[in-house]
């Protein structure tokens, strides 16, 4: 049985509007609702991806990526674990006073957090240290005790995630993601008693009220495992599996143990399991519109004290979905509550909601990244930007989490009129609508169709992905755009072709990548989405805390529910070919590209020149042109702009960037001189912008468009994104959106004209020696010798970024101070912004 909210969007918008209008003739709650809407709308913050935030309530600052909230049995203590790239901490809070009681720094932590029943102990997952952290609670302070090891630390693959306690039996149950198991730990003897395989990565677990059964969400297995733990000294046994939708993560059991809610992070849904009958009896659609593509990411659950109201933390919709679950099997949606950016957990304490926002309340400029001082001091993003002036700015740790505290005075529920106002705000914050799935922004006669499936004069799309550069870092010296020359690390002498493309075709100075780093960047760039596994895991390895790079198709758990761009093309019978992307070692990383990759095009390898890759593409392309077999979509990877830092004998950063630039220039020149030029378009972007500084925003990056139907000498200040580029490609090819993000994104139609221009592009030869090698022996060369360049960003990029900067600018160079804030506060939008237009 599946429950949708039917026409709730229309009803909520109408209800919210009428509730606000009634405020003119009535008093009390309606007037309050109107004021709530106006106050929050006036403080709206627009994110670089085009979505907006209007978080209500009060807040506390946290470190980056808080993932879990644990409540003590008496609900007088709350603990939060921060699991981001930078400093990781466990924070102890008094929920009654909303004050921080204590904070302790940990080397590694990940998801798991639980109080003992007597509130004298706190247990936490120790991440890839493969141990359980144990704390005594002395006068509401955390005192570290000896941890309990599950095994040797990384590179041994265990990685504890969620956990739960049975104090009466001195048992701690821990699920793991690297060896996909349930560990049973004796908390008194402090040792592992049993290990039971789950068959795929686990996320969390919870016990039945009598503590005889355990339920584990099998994150990588689309199921909940039911395990008998009432086995005395014998090992527990799995007695049932309950199928779920993709990436089950958080679990919530009703007090009577009859029903279990499970959030499906890769499917926009929450399942309601009848525990006795071992099956899902109801599926709640948490997205704002029915049958929406992926992009909601439910990942946190909470019930009101009377268990009549369910709150779902929708990470990618930046809101809580609210359901009346009084009658199980007949649940109904009642609205939405706006939150901060990427809410990860929610708890109800009396008449208040506590919500962790994984990325806080705003994006931010990054003029000091990469960090020249190599400080690891955590940065607090708050109302006083001057307090942050001397702190590090690396994008992986730039967006600090927050804890929102929201009043819900009606027996743990928002007042209906206030909830209507909240819901209206959520819809206003969300650029995605159902209509946008089939009809996009544009103009009549433009080569970019407005409707999915409408014809385009562009037949061939060439999509080039590169590595890790901001706008200012490459084009900051172009006076035609909004650049900062002081932050330009690789100016026109090094990148003449990218400058020429921007000057001769379209200069895009307001383009933003949706990703933070390469791990999520290759997912955003190929699927317009990074699922909960990707978002919650890349920070571990990027913080130097172990883990593998599994984000270019290597692990199915990291795949979006409906696959990548190539999967969508395959289903739509659109011919495609990939050159080195999702094809490591000239072999397919995903099934879709098998038999559709160029075997002579070398994958990611910084020791191999991009100009040689371009030569391989030319030969393959010419063969395809000659046989009239050029596919509709070609995806090409030129990744040497990543650079090898200061590694002795490797190309200097300037040489690596110039090599990459020349490959791009020669590619466009060769295509422009071919017979299909007027039917072709080249899109070029970076997977992410993590390596460089930018005075506008840490996500702002370079992007280029070239082709016979692309405008010439045009400057476009429109705000575009990774998802917007993908949306443009989809409209050309007749593909439906892959996620809510590309459905909502602005297509790049302004870059195009219906008047073809056959003038070929002429590549510029490099202004520096491409064979220039690093020869200096210094601190940066020694550090570079220790880096693993086998995959993008396996290394600690905070340190690597510093190496690149200092190799180019000098070992003692210091980045310029911040210039301006980066977030955009918008005035209240009109009512038509809430419509499905």
Automatic annotation (TrEMBL):
Descriptive protein name: 40-residue YVTN family beta-propeller repeat protein
InterPro entries xref list: Alkaline_phosphatase_core_sf, Host-pathogen_enzymatic-act, Lactonase_7-beta_prop, N2O_reductase_N, WD40/YVTN_repeat-like_dom_sf
Chain positions covered by the region annotation Disordered: 359-389
SUPFAM superfamilies tied to this protein: Alkaline phosphatase-like, Nitrous oxide reductase, N-terminal domain
Pfam families (UniProt xref): Lactonase
Organism: Fibrella aestuarina BUZ 2
Keyword annotations: Signal
Record PANTHER family: DIHYDRO-HEME D1 DEHYDROGENASE (PTHR47197:SF3), PROTEIN NIRF (PTHR47197)
Cited Gene3D superfamilies: Alkaline Phosphatase, subunit A (3.40.720.10), YVTN repeat-like/Quinoprotein amine dehydrogenase (2.130.10.10)
Biased composition (Polar residues): 372-389
Region forming the signal peptide: 1-22
Taxonomic placement: Bacteria, Pseudomonadati, Bacteroidota, Cytophagia, Cytophagales
